[in-house]
Design a protein that fits this description.
By secondary structure, the chain is an alpha/beta fold. It has eight helices and twelve strands. The two termini are about 30 Å apart.
C-alpha cells in the first residue's frame, strides 16, 4: 500500500513538495523509501497529491507531484468536541480517536475538577504533540483535513466558543430526564449540520458548571445507565452521532444506486 503523509497546505500549481526533516526521517528510516518511490500526500485542505520521491538529504528532501485530486470523503456533520483535560496521557488517545471519528475541532478546557497541569512551556509542547497525533490519525483514516485543536481554555471560554446555530449538548452523568437518544430523535436536531459537545473530567462537572452551561443554551444529556470512563464516553458519543448521520455504518451511494 502506498504510504499517505500529511504536509503543510500547498499553493495551487506547485509541482514539487519540500519535505521537512521529520518527514524525511520517517520515510527513509521507518518506511525504508528512497528515490523513485511513490507517496500520497495530503495538505488538510481536501486535496491529495500523488508524489514521487526525488531526493533525500540529511535534514530535507523533495518529492515531485505527478497527480492531484480531491479526496472524496465527506463528513456529514461538523462536530466540535470540548473535552475537559483528563489525567495522564488520555487526551492523546481521545485526540487520535476523535480524529478517526470525524471531529472537526477539539477544544481542551479546564474545569473545576481538572487536575492542575504543567508550565506554559510544557503545555505548548503538549499541544504540538496533540496536533501531530491528529495529523497522523488523519493520514491513517483517509481524511482530507486535520481537526483544529485549540489551546486549553477555561470552562466559560470553551462554552463561549459555541456558535448559536449549533446543537449544543453537555453530557452529565447526573442527568435523569434526557438521553442522547431523546435529543437525536428531535425533528430539528435530525436536520442539524453542526454539533458542539462538552465532555467533563474523570470527577464529572460540578452542578454550578452544569447550570452555567444550561444558561448558555446547552442541553444536558445522559449516555445511559452505565458510567463510562472519560475516554470511553467521548468515543461513544462521537460514534453514536456519526452512526446516526451516516459517516459510520453506511456506504456512500451513487445517484443511480437508488
Amino acid at each position: 500500500m502506498t504510504p499517505r503523509i500529511y504536509v503543510s497546505p500547498l499553493p495551487e500549481g506547485i509541482s514539487e513538495i519540500k519535505l521537512a526533516e521529520e518527514t524525511v526521517r520517517y520515510l527513509r528510516n521507518v518506511l525504508r523509501l528512497g528515490h523513485g518511490d511513490e507517496v500520497l500526500f495530503f495538505d488538510g485542505t481536501g486535496w491529495e497529491y500523488q508524489g514521487v520521491i526525488e531526493r533525500f538529504e540529511d535534514r530535507s528532501g523533495s518529492a515531485r507531484i505527478v497527480a492531484r485530486q480531491r479526496i472524496p470523503l465527506e463528513i456529514p456533520v461538523r462536530i466540535t468536541l470540548a473535552q475537559s483535560l483528563p489525567k495522564g496521557d488520555k487526551m492523546e488517545f481521545i485526540v487520535q480517536k476523535a480524529t478517526e471519528l470525524g471531529v472537526a475541532r477539539i477544544i481542551p478546557f479546564r474545569s473545576s475538577r481538572t487536575v492542575p497541569r504543567r508550565t506554559e512551556e510544557r503545555a505548548a509542547k503538549r499541544l504540538e504533540r496533540w496536533r501531530r497525533i491528529a495529523a497522523e490519525a488523519a493520514e491513517q483514516c483517509g481524511r482530507g483535513d486535520v481537526p483544529e485543536i485549540t489551546e486549553a481554555l477555561s470552562f466559560r471560554e470553551a462554552l463561549g466558543a459555541a456558535d448559536s446555530g449549533r446543537v449544543k449538548i453537555l453530557f452529565w452523568e447526573a442527568e435523569r430526564s434526557l438521553s442522547i437518544r431523546d435529543i437525536l430523535k428531535g425533528s430539528e436536531v435530525r436536520s442539524a449540520k453542526e454539533f458542539f459537545l462538552v465532555v467533563g473530567p474523570e470527577g464529572g462537572l460540578s452542578e454550578e458548571e452544569v447550570q452555567i452551561a444550561r444558561e448558555s443554551g446547552f442541553l444536558t444529556a445522559s449516555l445511559g445507565q452505565l458510567v463510562l470512563r472519560v475516554e470511553t464516553a467521548a468515543l461513544a458519543i462521537l460514534t453514536i452521532i456519526q452512526y446516526e448521520y451516516g459517516l459510520i455504518g453506511a456506504l456512500k451511494r451513487n445517484a443511480h444506486d437508488g
